[in-house]
Automatic annotation (TrEMBL):
The keyword Isomerase applies. CDD domains: cupin_PMI_type_I_N_bac. This is Class I mannose-6-phosphate isomerase. InterPro entries: Carb_Metab_Reg_Kinase/Isom, RmlC-like_jellyroll, RmlC_Cupin_sf. Keywords: Isomerase, Metal-binding, Zinc. It comes from the Bacteria. GO terms for molecular function: isomerase activity; metal ion binding. The lineage of its organism: Bacteria, Pseudomonadati, Bacteroidota, Sphingobacteriia, Sphingobacteriales.
Length: 584
């Protein structure tokens, strides 16, 4: 339905919500009453939470309710900043501007054991019955009392990144920010790893969970209602809140088509449709909205969500969907991704960044760079790349890399080690393994980044991973998915877009006029309507939800089965991806 020439925006929900199985509150009086009733003395939370907007409101409300409360910040029990730096430095990649290694540190290692013991003594000697109430707050507060119920204040990672860019969030245990790239690198490889493990270990003890991304409100939910909601979600469907990022090669398709998107940004290069390490899930009840980080769903319900694949991936969600927009923009860098062994050894990742490009929309001149020319000489290619980098003079990349016409609804396969790039004037749905940071750029068209500085290249890392056997006709024969059709009934066709043997996920497309019923067969299905207006999902458990063109959603394995009903006038086309059975 949506042709190359359409410019009219269509309906796209940028803040999708899931109904809470219970209630949400935005009341400080009710919150404090709940804290007191449940004798909660620990308010734990994620890095980046602005405690300065929370603690004064809590103090004021405790006073109103006749309780003298004492609030003790956990950061006063941290080891010195230099001691913490010594602990984390092995994971920061030295002078590498982009890459480190995922940290195997426990949060308790950040704390001075004597100071933590003092806190435990203070808590043991506090007497709430005499009107005295002690609360420890900040990341690690639950370490003071390791068995009681607690409150947790969450912060979705994309919100944390926004605060970092505004200079309002620091790394855990740091008093200053060096630069944004270093701060983000430490978040990704250290802070998130440590705090996610900590959150997982205490989630069953959470009696209250709150969302602190607003300075004006603190929506919260009880632990029971949160757990009931996550269980219901894990048996029906979910859609994360998408986020959007500009880039040096970014385009205009998303700006022109997606309703509600910020029009003041120069371009949009990426849409994080479902890149779950950074996405959050919005919960709604009675006009209140609370956002949780996606990992909470996995920490509680990974078996329901992943089904057969849970044994392999544990609480890591394996597949991501994201848009790459180059409409009236630029080419992506010429790049590749690491092998599984390299990703594990160098970065601590359990699996690597195997990708594929599905073309959702294009202009007539759009191209995809994929694989090497038959005559590729690795040494000459490397010399040309290095000469271009040092001289700042553009090179003729097509001497070395093949270029294919971009075709709508074609799937281009990019297993690890494959040289590739999207050319100008594509809207690419990138279907990939979840890791998303490990792009080794070899050539970037001699252009600066948005900040005017040269973009870092990773020629050494690329050449440690490039597969030079993917060249000539091998590319045409193995990296362009060859569709096979199966007619399901008079109005439904299922098209298999087989992926490469290195991909652990598979891709199908359902095309139907009216409706189609699908069984999960013990796998989580990640989907997007790539042609049509809207579809209505009905799960076997009876939940219904409408999804519009270009919206990504998932049906967990535990849903069992579901029906998609076409709400548009033309044929609906739905892309579906899931983990291959043989790779679990």
């Amino acid at each position: 339905m949506y042709s190359n020439t359409q410019t009219k925006p269509f309906q796209y929900e940028i803040a999708p919500t899931f109904p809470v199985q219970g209630t949400l509150s935005n009341s400080y009086p009710n919150l404090v009453a709940h804290l007191i009733t449940h004798n909660i003395h620990s308010i734990d939370g994620f890095v980046g939470v602005n405690w300065g907007t929370i603690i004064p409101n809590l103090k004021q409300e405790f006073e109103r309710q006749g309780v003298a409360a004492r609030f003790i910040a956990m950061d006063s029990a941290l080891k010195s900043e230099s001691a913490i730096q010594d602990i984390v430095s092995p994971y920061l990649g030295g002078n590498d501007p982009l890459f480190g290694k995922k940290a195997g540190i426990q949060l308790i290692e950040y704390f001075d054991t004597e100071k933590l013991a003092d806190f435990q003594s203070i808590l043991a000697n506090s007497d709430s019955k005499q009107g005295k109430y002690t609360i420890f707050y900040g990341p690690g507060a639950s370490l003071v009392d390791t068995s009681s119920q607690l409150m947790y204040i969450d912060l979705p990672k994309n919100v944390l990144i926004q605060r970092m860019r505004a200079g309002k969030a620091l790394n855990l245990g740091c008093s200053t920010q060096t630069n944004q790239k270093e701060t983000y690198k430490r978040y990704y490889f250290v802070d998130w790893e440590i705090l996610n493990r900590h959150k997982r270990s205490i989630l069953s003890r959470v009696e209250i969970l709150a969302d602190q991304q607003s300075s004006h409100s603190l929506p919260w939910i009880t632990g029971k209602d949160l757990r009931d909601t996550l269980q219901t979600m894990s048996q029906n469907y979910f859609r994360v809140r998408p986020t959007f990022e500009p880039g040096v090669w970014g385009g205009q398709w998303m700006k022109e088509h997606l309703t509600g998107i910020d029009q003041d940004v120069k371009n949009y290069a990426w849409s994080f449709e479902m890149i779950v390490p950074e996405n959050g899930i919005l919960l709604e009840a009675d006009g209140h909205i609370l956002e949780i980080s996606f990992d909470q769903l996995m920490f509680q319900e990974s078996a329901n969500v992943l089904g057969h694949a849970q044994q392999r991936f544990d609480v890591e969600f394996p597949i991501r969907f994201n848009f790459l927009d180059t409409f009236d923009g630029g080419n992506l860098s010429i790049q590749c991704h690491p092998s599984p062994a390299y990703a594990k050894a160098e970065f601590g990742e359990n699996f690597t960044q195997d990708e594929s490009y599905y073309i959702v929309d294009r202009k007539e001149d759009a191209q995809v760079y994929l694989g090497f020319q038959q005559t590729i000489d690795a040494d000459k290619f490397r010399s040309a790349l290095e000469e271009s980098f040092h001289s700042g003079i553009a090179m003729d990349i097509e001497q070395y890399v093949q270029k294919f016409e971009s075709k709508k609804h074609q799937l281009y396969l990019i297993p690890h080690g494959t040289v590739h790039s999207s050319g100008v004037n594509n809207l690419v749905l990138e279907i990939s393994a979840t890791p998303y940071n490990y792009t080794f750029k070899m050539y970037d068209w001699v252009r600066p980044d948005l900040d005017g500085k040269p973009r870092p290249l990773n020629i050494d890392r690329a050449f440690a991973n490039l597969n030079f056997s993917r060249k000539g006709d091998v590319v045409k024969n193995t990296l362009l998915a060859q569709p096979s059709e199966k007619v399901l009934d008079a109005q439904t066709t299922r098209i298999h877009l087989p992926t490469h043997e290195d991909h652990f996920y598979d891709v199908f497309r359902y095309e139907f006029d009216q409706d189609v019923s699908i069984e999960t067969q013990g796998q989580c299905h990640i989907m997007m309507l790539v042609e049509g207006e809207a579809i209505e999902l009905t799960t076997a458990n009876g939940m219904k939800r409408v999804f519009h063109y270009a919206e990504t959603f998932a049906v967990p394995a535990a849903a069992g089965s579901y029906t998609l009903r076409n709400l548009g006038n033309g044929k609906a086309k739905v892309i579906q991806s899931f983990v291959k059975e043989s790779k679990c």
